[in-house]
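Forwarding the complex inputs:
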Amino acid sequence: MTEEELIRSADELTRFQRHKFLIMVAGTIVISLAMVAVALIMYAQSGAEQLDLSRPGYQAVGKEVTQNSQSFDGFSSSGPLDQSVAGSFTKQYQKEAGNVTKVDAFGGSPLSDQALGITPAQ
Amino acid sequence: MKSPRLVLLFLGAAVTASFAVLGFSRLTFADSTTLTSDQLQAIQTNCMTLQQTLTQLNHSDTAVRVNQGQYYEEISSQLMAPMNSRIALNHYNGADLVTTAADFSNTLATFRSQYKTYANNLSKAMGIDCTKKPQQFYDAISTARTDRLALHTTVLALNGMVTTYDSQFTTFAQTLPLSSNGAEND
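Prediction (whole assembly, two chains):
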């Protein structure tokens, strides 16, 4: 390496060192923005967005959501299996099954032309 | 000096690309059905009411999705799966129950995916100004309507599997001993 090259190299190093704090701040901001963008993509793509009741305007929906996780312990995957255990399982199962089958989820036709008033009802 | 520039350039490109992907992920396409002038006028006149109706529907559907999803998850992971494990651990033949539980799990994945599509398309309809773009608004509603129908079919399939598992288990339970005394079946 020649003397000139050494001087130029030292100049460049000094210039970089002079701005390295600003570069670090800018880099941090850019990395943060990139990570937020990735997080937002995952939030939207995973379907979590639709289930997020903390979104603006959805707080009232939270009151309609059933909080049953505390009362439901689930069924143990280990242990003996006889008619008594089966009876206990059936009781728990039918309680949960009743919860899902009693609701006509996404049924009806609230988006039909008649329901929306786009076409007069026949 | 070149390295920090390259890093900044790369990070800038990454951010731009991320936002571009985010934007594209929200794009959906709808089938077009030509409306009569009366229908277009009805949409424009009732635009405010229609938007309110869609908002209310979106809110009630969100509650239904969360509740039903919660129950389905509990049935799958806290009842069907543990019982199937217990049957296997006790050396009984529960092949039918395992098949139904696997079908239920797969259909539950379809339910999650279909609801996501439906909610996205309903949100898209809610975001369209129906006084200015009534045809586009109607097309978005048509897409959401089709999605909702598919979702309802999946819900019926899930409910059917819940009932099937129940009846299969009732039949299976009749083969079990009255008392096992803590011993596994050989």
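Chain A touches chain B through 69 residues (CB under 8 Å).
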